[in-house]
Request: fold
Amino acid sequence: MAWRRITTHVAVALIAIGVSTSSGDFARAADQTQPETQSVRKARLVTRIDTKDRVAFITIDDGRSVTESMADFIRENRIPVTSFVLPEWLKKLWEPTYSTFPNMTFENHSNTHRRLGRMSLEKQTRELCEASRLITKIAGDTPRFFRPPGGVMNNDTLKAAGACGMPYVVKWSVDTAGGVVNPVGARTTLQRGDIILLHYIPQDTAVLKQVMKMMKEAGLKPALLRDYLP
Reply:
């Protein structure tokens, strides 16, 4: 009887050790599927660039609809544009349109255009990292900047962007909603370092032409964000 009790205790102990080890392995495997964000430096939020150069930055979002008139205007004037595009539309329009632009970078605008403010850090990180992976695959260049859809974000967004290899989250200092060029604050003119928000929509061809006219009047030239944010 004593021998049976000892054998039973040993068997139970071995089972317990096996369960513990398996659980630990499973936990480690599960952890490996989650984005690592704890040791990554979070991104910096930027709304305009502090520069002595007389430049401003044209940024265009979404990528759903690039009209021929806008594409022709960008190409003919060789305008440097920072595009915050959705991977789905970048892929669909890559060959006929985006690959033909002479001076454009393709940055992260999320994978599915979801508003990030109420999403967990894990979900935001997956959303941003997947977008960067797809954009890199399509364009052959890894995004360095992230722009949150609608500008909606929180502190976790900065952490997620950093975890996905983007050191900057970029908003804007000049909006063009409704077809009106509207600098933030009381001013009515463009200033050096302004980051100007447009969208790839039909009506923004006229807006882009107006922006270029205002930049010329202010003695400014368009530049790429990547040339001023290391």
Q: What stands out?
A: The helical segments are 2-33, 68-76, 87-93, 121-139, 155-163, 204-217. Strands lie at 44-46, 55-62, 81-85, 104-108, 145-146, 168-170, 174-175, 182-183, 195-199, 221-222. The first helix runs from residue 2 to 33.
